[in-house]
Amino acid sequence: MNNDKKKIEPWRIALFLIAVLAIVFMWVKKDVGAACEGLSRAELVPLIITSVAVTLFKLILIALAALLVKWLIKKLRK
């Protein structure tokens, strides 16, 4: 039996984290950039926090959808 399939290499984890951070940065930058014109600093901080939270929620939904598709494919193959 090959146990190498269960092992996750550290470079894959690092690459995944970099990709997730890049996606979060791009979504937040787009959302905040469009809405920050004319806002004071007191209004901008909650906007940034909300944008980050919404972006993370979107990423969680995308990940759950991918896991659901993977699970369905496994079920259909059996």
Counted beta strands = 0
Assembly state of the chains shown: single chain
Radius of gyration: 18 Å
The low-confidence parts are none
* Distance N to C terminus: 21 Å
Number of helices: 2
- Described by the principal axes of the CA atoms, the overall outline is elongated
- Briefly note the structural class of the backbone: mainly alpha
Portion in beta strands: under 5%
Largest sheet: none
Question: Can you describe this structure in just a few lines?
Answer:
This protein is an all-alpha fold and 78 residues long.
Characterization of this structure:
The protein is mainly alpha-helical. It has one domain. Helix 1 crosses helix 2. The chain is elongated and about 55 Å long.
Helix and strand arrangement:
Blueprint (H helix, E strand, L loop, with lengths): L9 H26 L5 H37 L1
Helix pairs in contact: 1-2
Entry keywords:
78 residues, 2 helices, mainly alpha
